[in-house]
Structures are given as C-alpha cells and as structure tokens.
TrEMBL record, chain A:
Keywords: Cell membrane, Membrane, Protein transport, Translocation, Transmembrane, Transmembrane helix, Transport. It comes from Commensalibacter nepenthis. InterPro entries: SecD/SecF_arch_bac, SecD/SecF_bac, SecD/SecF_CS, SecD_SecF_C, SecD_SecF_C_bact, SecF_bac. The lineage of its organism: Bacteria, Pseudomonadati, Pseudomonadota, Alphaproteobacteria, Acetobacterales. This is Protein-export membrane protein SecF. It is a multi-pass membrane protein. Part of the Sec protein translocase complex. Interacts with the SecYEG preprotein conducting channel. SecDF uses the proton motive force (PMF) to complete protein translocation after the ATP-dependent function of SecA. The gene is secF. Residues 115-301 form the Protein export membrane protein SecD/SecF C-terminal domain. HAMAP family: SecF_B.
Length: 312, 519
C-alpha cells in the first residue's frame, strides 16, 4: 500500500559545522537569558490568581458589555482598584481585585458578593460565569509548591543524566535547561500571560521535552565516543548532531503541530499555556544543537575520552 | 527480537481491543446497573461547579480547650477548698496560670491537679515557679490530635449539611492537617452552601443579666451580644450556659401555630430535657436567650415550665432560614469555625465552551501529526499512526479505569502526549534509515535500528516520567490532572510503539520479505 516517504526533512549526508557557531550560540543564549532575568525582576511576571491571591469574576453580558456602566456600579459599591477588561468575546467581562487588606475570609466573601451584585445590576441579563477567590496564605503556599516542583524536577533530571551518562553531560544539560527556563520566563514577562499553576505545568513540560531532546543528542555523542577513538571531540559532536538532526527536527515538528491548535483554538484559558509551550519547543530544540552540545565540548575533553575508553 | 509469534501479536491486539471496550462507558450509559461502568469524570473546569477549600480555625479550638480547663481547675480547687488568685489563660502561649493563696498549699494544689481525670491532665505539663505561680501548658501533640479529630468531625458535619441541600455528587475530602476540600459539580452559585458551612451552629441557652445596662462596661460574667435580626441592638447575656444545644436530638422547620411565622422546633434528650425543665421552672417571668454563634436569635420571656424537652424558636425567619437553621442544629455544631480560603466557581456554559475548544484542538492536532508522519515516514509512518490511534484509546481506557478526573490542563496533556508519542517511532525509523545507508540488509537494518533506538527511547522517556511525577506530587487540582495524563501517556506510548507498531512492522516484513525497506 503506502510506499516510501514523500519528503525527507534533512537531506542525506548533511554535514553542517555547528561547532563553528558555538560562541555565537552561547553568547546569544546568555544575552537572551540575562535579558530575561532582568525582565523577571523588572517589570516582573504578571502573577495569576493562584500566586497573587485575590478575586477574579468573569461575567457574560447580553449584548456588548457596557464598561462605563459596570465601572460606575463598582464605584458606587466603593470597590476600588478593580481591574476591568474584555476577555475574549465582546460580551465577556473580567474583573480582578486584590485580596482585601484585612486578609480575612469573611471580608473576601463580602467583597466577592459585592462584585457579583454590582456586575449583574449594571446590565440586564448578565450572568456570572466564573468567580474565583484565593486567600493570601493559599497563594503563597501554591507558589512555593510550584517552585519546589520546578526545583525537584531539575534535580531529578540532573541525577538521572548523571546516572545514565557522565557528570559532564549532567552539568551541561542542567546549564542548558536553566538557560531554556529563564528564556521561557522572559517570554512570559513580555507577553503578559498570567503566571499561574497551569504555567508551571507548561514550564515543566518544556523541561521534560527539552531534556528528552538533549538525551537523544547525548546518546549519540556517547555512542560515537566509543566508536571513534581518535576523532577530535569537536568533529565528533558535529557528526552526532548531524546524525540526529532529522529526528530532532521531526519530533519538534510533531509536538509543535500538536500544540499549535491548542494555541489557536484552545480558548482564553489554555492558549497562553500553548503559546508558552510552542516557544519552549523552539528554544529547547535550538538549545539542544547550539548550547548543550558546545557546553559538552567546553567540558574537559580528556576526561570524556578517558572514561569512554574505559567503558568500551 | 525479530520474530514475534502470532500469539504475541494477537495478545497486543487483544489488549488494544480491551482498551477500546473500556473506552465505551464514556460514550453511553450503563446497560445494566450490575455491570461495572467506569468512566472518566469531568473536572469542575469542564462541567461547571464550585470548589471550596476550607481551613479550620485551630486558635478557636485552643481557646475553647483552655476555657474548659480553666473551669475544671476552678471547680477542682473549690471542691478541695484550696485558694487561688488571678487565674488566666493565654491563647498565645497555650498556657493557664494562677497564683496560690499561700505557699503552704502548693503540694495539696499539685496533688489536686494531678487527681483530675487522666484524659484531661495528660494533655498538659505542669510547672511551678518560685513566686507561687503555677502554670499549665497545653502540649503540641495534644493540640495536633485535637485538631485532627476536629477535622474528621467537621468533615462528617459538612457532609451531612451538604447532603441535606440536595447537591448532586458532592466530593468532600481532607487536605493536610487542617483543611477540607469541597467540590460541588453543577453548583454555580454556592452562596447557600457557603453560608451553611460558614456557620459553626453552636447553640446555647442563657439567662440575661437585667441589671446590666451599659454595653461598654459589662459586669464580670456577662457579655453584650448583638441580636441576629438587628445587630445594633445588644443584650446582656450571662456567660454561664444553662442548656447546651449539643443535647438536641432533633430539629425541624415548621410553622408557629399562633402567628403563622416560620419556626424551628427542637427536641432535647433526657438530660437536656431535665436541665431545660429546671431552668424554666426557676426563672418564670424572666427572659431566656437562645444564642447561636455569639448572636442572639431570640430572647422570649419564660411563661411556664417546659417539662417535655421540646421547644420552638421563632425569630422572624424566612422559610429558607428556618430550614437551614434546623438543618444545622440537626447536623451538630462544628468543633471550630471553618474559613473559606480558596473558592473557584465555573459556570456550566464556560465548561461547555472549554470542552468544545479542547475537542477541536485535540482533533486538529491529531490530524496534523497523522499527516506529518505519512508524508515524512511513508509506510512506517502509517504504522506509527496506527500506534498513535491505539495510544489515544489506551490512554482513555486507563483514565476510565482509574475513574480519573479530566480537567482542561488534562486535555492539554493528552494533546502533548500525542505529539510526543510518535517520537519513539521517529527514533526507530531514523536509525533504520541510517543502517540502510550504511549498506545493511533490510533485516539487519531493522534489527540494528530497533536495538540502538531502544536505549535512547528509555532514557528520554524516563526523564520525562520523572519530571511529571514531581509535578503530580507538588501540584494541586487541575495541574495534577495534567501530570497524571502525561504520566499515563508515557506508559501507553512505550507500549504502543514497542509492542504494537513494531510488531506490525515485523509481521509486515515476515510476510512480504521486501528486498528494500521503504524508508
């Protein structure tokens, strides 16, 4: 029935000299990551409800939402500093409030009821479709758990790579992953996607995906180290990247294609997640080639070679 | 490696078929209640509903415990005719301290304290200072135990109260040491339930101090409490509890025969009825206050002895208020107040939109990956597509078997798994291609390609597995759903690739014996 593939992603016998661009790659990556770090401290991430605490009410009005009227109703109820914005469709309103200063459960309850009241009375037929309130203590706890998940993941990945490969591989992988992660955070700052638990999930997925990508390249480097005893490391790494290039690109593309519809039609609540994923896939794929492998080259060449000999 | 028996292939296909059967319950209702019908539950973000995270106020629990103990100590010392001064408790250090009347009584006092019931005295450590002060400190362990008991008890009461509202399929679970999660599918305005759960419903009966008039300076043993209907009006309530609401055996909403107002009828147990009769007998003509959570519901004047232990509360109730009060009295008082610290409500329409968006994304993403594999891997890509399809079925089957909850991030997880699922096939195919180029025969190329790709496949999947297990452990709510789907997806991916699609390739080779591989 079906025969040969219609197309090949990478022509046979590709020999791109990736290591020649190693400094440019590393410097570009470092600059982007440092810029991301600066963005992280100023202006900083847009924290979502999970981590910021507070109140979010989403309402659907009949016909286009009349923001002036809603704002007036909120003012009348003495609700200040209410972030009011359109959310997706024209008849969708999103109201954000910080948690009440007193930080007690009752004050939050009163506030959320007042907001609901004000929004529904501004326009006839308005429905509350979502109302969330997260207390300050819970949000800081969620934040801590989110960071712990990221930290532990990095640690586990490093230990696993160390266990399966060598410490040089583990360290280059972790450095690359941290560079990837900071860029994703920079992307979040620029795009103003809210950083919440779902975004932590996205970042962890990027970590998993990016590691996966690096492991495939490393695997080939290790194999070639055993096979070609006298080849200079630089050539050997270039060869390994070229050999795995087709796979690297193919997998990136399938994951990209799977996530793309989510970004386009996933709705307001998931498209942010998907865009971050898409960004992460591009960054993760390029860092496998331009960062993780060159870092390996910078690690002590001699020790890699020696150990490879001992193993084979 | 190269020769899979028909039996093995049949087993793998059978597994996929069983998977298909396990998927069925998600698309139809059970033909008979006898058949175990396990299906994936939709999370609140997909079906609409309310999520409440409540925390018990342990400070109140400590305070109550210290209060009770202070009373006990007073009574013990008085009964032994031992003197004491300045007895006071501190909520902050969890201590009760008092000063001796005279140093010579120290031994007798300590002996009396140690003579208190074991269950009471075991919770405290007693220390005596040189200045004749005795301090009792509540132990951490005892408080932990009490907190834990209180949460267990609260869950029972919360369940009773929610069941009585007729909420469908509620889920009430404990989280950590002092929290309860309540999930209410389909409830998109949780106001009534929030009110029910936010009320401790500790009902007590008190006499009033009619001489006290100035709310700013209440005499000792008296507290001015606001009326429920009109909080600006305050009544001087004696602290001493005449009858405790925990001695109620039944409560129901009804109508007051005389004025047609809604009322709550209640019934005491024997001990409660006795106490109630005694109090009413001794205080005819005086007002008798019914207090609920430090608010006075009503304070009628006692007209005569009430011997049977049944009574009626009126206080300008609406039918809803009377029903809810009766319900709360029946279910009992919460050991300490529950505070709502996290609340999420999603309307049903929003959930439907989310499902639609998720389903469209899933379908489009799936189609794109399928086409990609056919275009770039031809014949072998077709086998990868079969594996991908089986993967989707098996993932759904396992999620159904676990009766897992599918959330919006969970759907995203499925989609990403589908994207990653073909990776193992890609790895094998690329390896086979290389081996063919190196001039190996088709059989050798297949064998070597598979063997070499295997360790890479394992390495890359184990790392992904590890990071998602971390996410499952530290994540909460929807994020856990995401981690769960991906973790399951990794397992099914390995199975469908290494067993199904690879076996199909081997069968194909064994049957056709091609001279050249279509790579």
């Amino acid at each position: 029935m079906l025969g040969r593939p219609l197309l090949h992603l990478v022509p046979h016998g590709t020999k791109i000299n990736f290591m020649r661009g190693r400094f440019i790659g590393l410097i570009t990556s470092a600059v982007l990551s440092i810029a991301s770090l600066i963005l992280f401290f100023h202006p900083g991430l847009t924290l979502g409800l999970d981590f910021r605490g507070g109140i979010v009410v989403e309402a659907q009005t009949q016909g286009p939402a009349d923001f002036a009227k809603i704002r007036m109703e909120l003012n009348q109820a003495h609700i200040s500093a209410a972030g009011l914005q359109q959310f997706g469709a024209k008849n969708s309103v999103l109201i954000r409030l910080d948690a009440p200063k007193e930080n007690n459960a009752e004050a939050t309850q009163t506030l959320i009821n007042q907001v609901k009241q004000a929004v529904t009375s501004a326009q006839d037929g308005t429905k509350i479709v979502r109302a969330d309130a997260v207390g300050a203590s819970v949000s800081s706890e969620l934040f801590r758990h989110g960071l712990l998940a990221l930290g532990f993941s990095l640690l586990m990945i490093m230990l696993y790579i160390w266990f399966r490969f060598e410490w040089e591989f583990a360290i280059s992988a972790i450095i690359t992953l941290i560079l990837d992660l900071t860029k994703a955070i920079g992307f979040l700052v620029i795009t103003h996607f809210e950083f919440d638990l779902v975004m932590v999930a996205a970042l962890l997925t990027i970590l998993g995906y990016s590691t996966n990508d690096k492991v495939v390249v490393y695997d080939r480097v290790r194999e070639n180290l055993r096979k070609y005893h006298s080849m200079p490391i630089r050539e050997l790494i270039d060869m390994s990247i070229n050999e795995t290039l087709s796979r690297t690109l193919a997998t990136s593309l399938t994951v990209f294609l799977a996530a793309l519809p989510l970004a386009l039609f996933g709705g307001a609540s998931l498209s942010g997640f998907a865009w971050v994923m898409l960004f992460g896939i591009v960054v993760g794929t390029s860092s496998s080639i331009f960062i993780a492998a060159p870092l390996l080259l910078f690690m002590e060449e001699g020790s890699l070679r020696r150990r490879a000999k001992k193993i084979s | 490696m190269m020769y899979y028996s028909r039996k093995k292939l049949a087993l793998v296909i059978l597994t996929c078929f069983i998977g298909l059967l396990l998927c069925l319950p998600n698309f139809m209702s059970a033909p008979s209640p006898k058949i175990p019908w396990r299906q994936i539950h939709l999370g609140l973000d997909l079906r609409g509903g309310s999520y409440l995270l409540m925390q018990i106020d342990l400070n109140v629990l400590t305070k109550n415990r210290l209060q009770t103990l202070s009373d006990n100590i007073r009574q013990t010392l008085i009964s032994k005719d031992l003197g004491y001064k300045d007895i006071h408790s501190s909520d902050k250090d969890h201590t009760i301290s008092f000063t001796l009347r005279s140093p010579s009584e120290k031994d007798a006092v300590l002996k009396a304290l140690k003579g208190m019931p074991k269950a009471v005295i075991n919770e405290f450590s007693i220390s005596d200072a040189p200045n004749d002060q005795i301090t009792l400190t509540l132990s951490e362990d005892a408080m932990k135990q009490r907190g834990s008991d209180a949460i267990a008890q609260s869950i029972e009461i919360v369940r009773k109260r929610i069941d009585a509202t007729g909420a469908v399929d509620p889920s009430i679970t404990r989280q950590g040491e002092d929290r309860i999660i309540v999930q209410l599918p389909g409830v998109d305005d949780p106001e009534r339930i929030k009110k029910l759960l936010g009320t401790t419903a500790k009902m007590t009966f008190h006499l009033l101090d009619e001489n006290a008039t100035n709310p700013d300076f209440p005499p000792p043993g008296v507290t001015f409490m606001p009326m429920m209907e009109d909080p600006s009006k305050k009544l001087p309530i004696r602290d001493h509890i005449e009858v405790d609401g925990s001695e109620l055996t039944n409560a129901s909403a009804g109508m007051d025969q005389q004025n047609g107002e809604y009322a709550v009828n209640f019934q005491f147990d024997t001990a409660g009825a006795q106490a109630f009769a005694n109090v009413t007998r001794a205080n005819i003509g005086k007002p008798f206050a019914i207090v609920l959570d430090n608010q006075v519901i009503t304070a009628p004047v006692i007209k005569g002895v009430i011997p049977g232990g049944s009574g009626q509360i009126t206080g300008g109730f609406t039918v809803q208020k009377a029903t809810d009060l009766a319900l709360m009295l029946r279910s009992g008082a919460l050991p300490a107040p529950l505070k709502i610290i996290e609340e999420r409500t999603i309307g049903a329409s929003l959930g439907e939109d989310a499902i639609r968006a998720g389903a469209i994304s899933l379908a489009v993403g799936f189609a794109l990956v399928i086409v990609f594999m056919l275009v770039f891997y031809g014949h072998f890509g077709f086998y990868a597509d079969i594996a991908l399809f089986a993967n989707l079925i098996l993932m759904t089957a396992i999620l159904s078997l676990f009766e897992a909850t599918l959330t919006l991030p969970g759907m995203a997880g499925m989609l990403l798994t589908l994207g990653m699922a073909v990776d193992a096939n890609i790895l094998i195919n690329e390896r086979i291609r290389e081996e063919v180029r190196n001039g190996r025969t088709p059989l050798n190329a297949l064998q070597a390609g598979f063997d070499r790709a295997l360790s890479t496949i394992i390495d890359s999947n184990v790392t992904a597995f590890l990071s998602h297990v971390m996410l499952f452990i530290f994540g909460t709510g929807p994020v856990r759903g995401f981690a769960l789907t991906i973790t399951i997806g990794i397992v099914t991916t390995i199975f469908t690739t290494l067993c199904l699609s690879w076996m199909l390739i081997i069968r194909w080779y064994a049957v056709t014996r091609p001279k050249e591989l279509p790579v």
